[in-house]
């Protein structure tokens, strides 16, 4: 494939973070090269992406309070660590990916360039989270992923169930407070969760890369049209289904959006995520082979609401009476980002070219943290970076990850 085609495909999957085909009801689908039958030990992320590089890696299963069984990977030590550090307790770090991808996206660049391995080589105990619905998280104590109920959730449930489950699991395993790193949706669920005090006893500090919180300034014509087109259709939609970005209807919907006046789909990657400066075509190729992953349609709806409404609130059922049924109020409750404990050490890194995490929206986020203890908030602005550079940029180590390391080492 030509590089431009690769980029178009990559951007398609990123675009789909914002669009949704409301009447879709796909059955259970499978990952491109793996089955979902629990063969993680053979074909999972550890085997395909970590141990091949000479790192130890453990597959774990974590059960959420609402019955989902999530897979996690742990890289417990440096490559070829040997016994010299035996018995030394390492600081655990939990890494949370964004929407429509899974934990593998962190591992696509070379070991010298990808975040989990850099953290492991610097002496951290690295835990990679995967959210419900993605390739290795399609199990549940009683539901099947072909059932509608399996997909009856939005990012509210990631806040109240997935994140607490993985935090508790890592804390129980390591008996230490945890550093958190989130990218994209992984930042939103972290911010929302910490604002509700969910991880008060297990969280040590948090790094937010390409933060998504407020979304109303998202500056791409395509993104705005996608969110609006979607919201236009929501009023008639109350179904519950898997959202499979690899499905035909998703592509058809994208084509329709590209016909809107003012929408330029010629360079999709730039149109959606902003002008990424520093991607490697080989990495983008791997990205296309492994992503995008399914999520719940309801989750996409919730994200579109966040774009439309300009507030960080719980899922809106679309009618005051439905909202009252779920929340006891006509409007969905708001997540109060200012309620994040003021002494929680926070690192935020954002890009000047990021079209999803627009600078104006990041400034709103920073404003909601304006009473945060000054010496506990570290902010990095990278003029040339766009959304995908933070996970796949070939120079992300020098520019971002070394700052993250420095931030964590300051908390020791
Ligand atoms: C989805 O969950 C809500 C409660 O949050 C419930 O009212 C609704 O009936 C569920 N729908 C399906 C299809 O499971
Ligand atoms: C905590 O860890 C212990 C030992 O590893 C295990 O037996 C126990 O079930 C765990 N508890 C939870 C809640 O995960
Ligand atoms: C891009 O990826 C390929 C394959 O992993 C690698 O050989 C090459 O060195 C990478 N280029 C850069 C600039 O990192
Ligand atoms: C949000 O939290 C802050 C800090 O706890 C508090 O001062 C403020 O009143 C809260 N705002 C709302 C709308 O509850």
Automatic annotation (TrEMBL):
It comes from the Eukaryota. The active site is at residues 184, 354, 387. Gene3D superfamilies: alpha/beta hydrolase (3.40.50.1820). The keyword Hydrolase applies. GO terms for biological process: lipid catabolic process; lipid metabolic process. GO terms for molecular function: lipase activity. Residues 50-109 form the Partial AB-hydrolase lipase domain. Residues 1-25 form the signal peptide. Pfam families: Abhydro_lipase. InterPro entries: AB_hydrolase_fold, AB_hydrolase_lipase, Lipase_euk. Keywords: Hydrolase, Lipid degradation, Lipid metabolism, Signal. Belongs to the AB hydrolase superfamily. Lipase family. This is Lipase. It comes from Gossypium hirsutum. The lineage of its organism: Eukaryota, Viridiplantae, Streptophyta, Embryophyta, Tracheophyta. The gene is LOC107915315.
């Amino acid at each position: 494939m030509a590089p431009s085609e690769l980029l178009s495909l990559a951007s398609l999957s990123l675009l789909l973070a914002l669009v949704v085909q409301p009447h879709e009801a796909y059955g259970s689908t499978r990952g491109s090269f793996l089955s979902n039958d629990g063969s993680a030990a053979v074909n999972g992320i550890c085997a395909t992406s970590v141990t091949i590089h000479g790192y130890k890696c453990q597959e774990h299963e974590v059960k959420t309070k609402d019955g989902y069984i999530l897979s996690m990977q742990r890289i417990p030590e440096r490559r070829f660590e040997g016994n010299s550090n035996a018995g030394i307790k390492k600081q655990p770090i939990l890494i949370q990916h964004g929407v429509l991808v899974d934990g593998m996206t962190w591992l696509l660049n070379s070991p010298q360039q990808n975040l989990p391995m850099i953290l492991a080589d610097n002496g951290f105990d690295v835990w990679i989270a995967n959210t419900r619905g993605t390739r290795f998280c399609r199990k549940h104590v009683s539901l099947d992923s072909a059932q509608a109920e399996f997909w009856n959730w939005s990012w509210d449930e990631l806040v109240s169930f997935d994140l607490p489950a993985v935090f508790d699991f890592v804390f129980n395993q390591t008996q230490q407070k945890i550093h958190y790193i989130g990218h994209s949706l992984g930042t939103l669920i972290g911010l929302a969760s910490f604002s509700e005090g969910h991880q008060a006893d297990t969280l040590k500090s948090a790094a937010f890369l390409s933060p998504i919180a407020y979304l109303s300034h998202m500056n791409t014509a395509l993104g705005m049209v996608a969110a609006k087109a979607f919201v236009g259709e929501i009023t008639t939609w109350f179904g519950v289904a898997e959202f499979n970005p690899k499905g035909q209807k998703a592509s058809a919907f994208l084509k329709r959006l590209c016909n809107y006046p003012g929408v330029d789909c010629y360079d999709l990657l730039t149109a959606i995520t902003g002008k990424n400066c520093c991607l490697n075509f080989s990495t983008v190729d791997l990205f296309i082979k492994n992503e995008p992953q399914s999520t719940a349609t309801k989750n996409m709806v919730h994200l579109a609401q966040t774009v439309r409404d300009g507030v960080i609130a719980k899922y809106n059922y679309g009618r005051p009476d439905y909202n009252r049924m779920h929340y006891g109020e006509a409007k969905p409750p708001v997540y109060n980002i200012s309620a994040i404990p003021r002494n929680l050490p926070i690192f935020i890194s954002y890009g000047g070219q990021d079209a999803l995490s627009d600078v104006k929206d990041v400034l709103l986020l920073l404003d909601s943290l304006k009473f945060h203890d000054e010496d506990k908030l570290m902010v990095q602005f990278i003029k040339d970076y766009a959304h995908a550079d933070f996970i796949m940029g070939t120079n992300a180590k020098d520019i971002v990850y070394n700052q993250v390391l420095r931030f964590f080492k300051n908390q020791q």
